[in-house]
Design goal:
32 strands, 505 residues, five-stranded mixed β-sheet, 8 helices, alpha+beta
Length: 505
């Protein structure tokens, strides 16, 4: 007896299922498998899901071409073979950014030099341009999905109510990628003044949707306090101000949730999840921070010297309107790469913890009825993270994107890089099954025990987040490469004199 519905109607019914249900239906019978695998639309949905990509509904490419392009794109990353390469000269400025496929550098002439890196399958051309400013750029960030550049500069003294304040101030200028005042903001600049600011302060700056967040921190230890502020950049209104030395780093989880690196003492690092609220007065002690939950690390043995959270792109990022990009990296899950450097005895040891957004959101959900919930390491870390002994660059920090992380192996002159991928579907499917396999990826061991290689923890630390790793040979350079960075479509190798971009698409 045949199935009572026409295949076309059955296919339309399948279109309303989520992908896990669709994959289960393919195992029910040969008919269902044939209908689903024979549908270009359903095959495209499954390919997007498995590769952690999202469809750009505004692109003009038809579904057949999108599916072919996506499969070609995924094969390039699976085989780790680039299709093109090019070099970018280093400017003599002091700050840079790699975001949304754009590499931007400041120059000594108070301008930004920007390069949009090309990607042929996505139809992204190379574009180079410069944007001049009438002030010295102290630091900056950009969000090309919103056509926004935020430039920071310091000023001595600030005029408030016709009275000149002796405090140093930081002005954040809101411009477009072509240098004009941004049309969607009610203010042209945002100002932060404080008695603790000085010229040695550095910045961590991120844009997520309507929120602009900046951490002012003193990397040389001349100031005892760090300042963390969040504004609505469209209105200029301050949303959050935390003034405490324990706040070390941050990254957005969603537009309203922030992951913060907290260090109460050298041996007690933790991660706090903050919900942005309209707090105007400074919060000066750690116990007053309105966190959702606090995730503890294993107890350290040694002195913490460095604690940085990185995640790219931000959760609200999408390709710029009108770009025509057929698909882009999904933000349903991504990796937070958390680096620590610890002085243990006379030895410096570096640890990287990879934490998926899904692990963090699970703890947020569990904290719904328990405000300021404390979560010990054994309750969240072993099964939901992966910890490795690695030493990522502390200068070229764009080493993570989506579910991937890259590290140039400097002991091999930087000509070799190790790439980690925590996409769980790729880790199950695309990996080396024999010595002769052309696929460079291998599955990570079921368990990782960094405490067996370094002595910076009290007791054994075991983590089990699944993933895969590949070792890839990079473009040759006589002088080697200083670091490697990764974006959605590119690997970028760094040498002090110039950058080399590799397009894997």
């Amino acid at each position: 007896m045949g199935f009572p519905l026409p295949d076309e109607l059955t296919g339309l019914t399948f279109n309303h299922l989520d992908i896990p249900s669709l994959l289960r239906c393919m195992r029910v019978c040969k008919l269902f498998h044939s209908i689903i695998s024979g549908s270009t639309h359903l095959a495209y949905k499954i390919e997007l899901f498995a590769s952690y990509m999202e469809d750009n509904e505004h692109a003009s490419t038809d579904t057949v071409n999108r599916l072919n392009l996506l499969r070609k794109y995924n094969r390039a990353w699976r085989d780790m073979k680039w299709t093109s390469s090019g070099s970018i000269p280093m400017s003599d400025g002091h700050c840079w950014e790699f975001s949304g496929g754009i590499l931007a550098q400041s120059t000594h002439e108070n301008e930004l030099s920007l390069v949009q890196l090309p990607c042929k399958p996505k139809g992204i051309p190379e574009r180079r341009w410069s944007v001049p400013f009438d002030f010295r750029i102290r630091d900056f960030t950009l969000d090309n999905s919103q056509n926004l550049i935020c430039n920071a500069r310091y000023l001595h003294g600030l005029m408030i109510a016709s009275v000149t304040s002796p405090h140093m101030s930081c002005k954040i200028h809101l411009r477009t990628l072509s240098g004009e005042h941004h049309p969607r903001t009610a203010v042209t600049q945002i100002t932060h003044a404080s008695a603790s600011l000085h010229t040695e302060f550095s910045f961590l700056i991120q844009i997520c949707g309507d929120h602009l967040a900046i951490l002012f921190y003193d990397q040389f230890g001349a100031s005892s306090e760090n300042s963390f502020l969040v504004w609505n950049w469209r209105t200029g209104h301050q949303k959050l101000f935390i003034y405490t030395s324990e706040f070390q780093s941050f990254a957005f989880m969603t537009e309203d949730l922030i992951l913060a690196a907290i260090l109460r003492s050298d041996s007690e690092p933790s991660l706090q999840v903050l919900r942005i609220a309209a707090y105007v007065d400074p919060i000066q002690i750690l116990e007053d921070i309105p966190y959702v939950c606090e995730l503890r690390y294993p107890k350290l043995r040694g002195h913490m010297e460095y604690f940085l959270i990185r995640a790219e792109p931000t959760p609200t990022w999408k390709p710029p309107a009108g770009s025509g990009v057929p698909f882009y990296g999904s933000r349903k899950d991504f990796i937070f790469t958390i680096s620590m450097r610890i002085l243990s005895g006379d030895t410096h040891e570096s640890i990287v913890l990879f934490v998926p957004l899904s692990t963090l959101l699970l703890e947020v959900e569990r904290s719904r009825d328990v405000p300021r919930r404390h979560v010990p390491w054994d309750a969240w870390g072993p099964s939901g993270t992966r910890m490795v002994c690695r030493e990522p660059s502390e200068t070229w920090v764009c080493y993570t994107y989506g579910m991937k992380f890259i590290q140039g192996l400097r002991w091999k002159n930087g000509h070799v890089a190790r790439v980690y991928d925590f996409n769980p579907y790729a880790a199950r499917k695309d990996f080396k099954t024999s010595v002769d396999s052309p696929i460079p990826w291998t599955r990570l061991a079921e368990e990782s025990k960094p405490s067996g290689r370094c002595g910076c923890f009290h007791g054994e630390v075991i983590t089990r987040l699944p993933g895969r790793v590949a070792t890839v040979t990079l473009e040759h350079s006589d002088e080697g490469w200083d670091a490697a960075m990764i974006g959605e479509d590119h690997i970028v190798m760094v040498q002090v004199r110039y950058l080399l971009s590799i397009d894997y698409s």
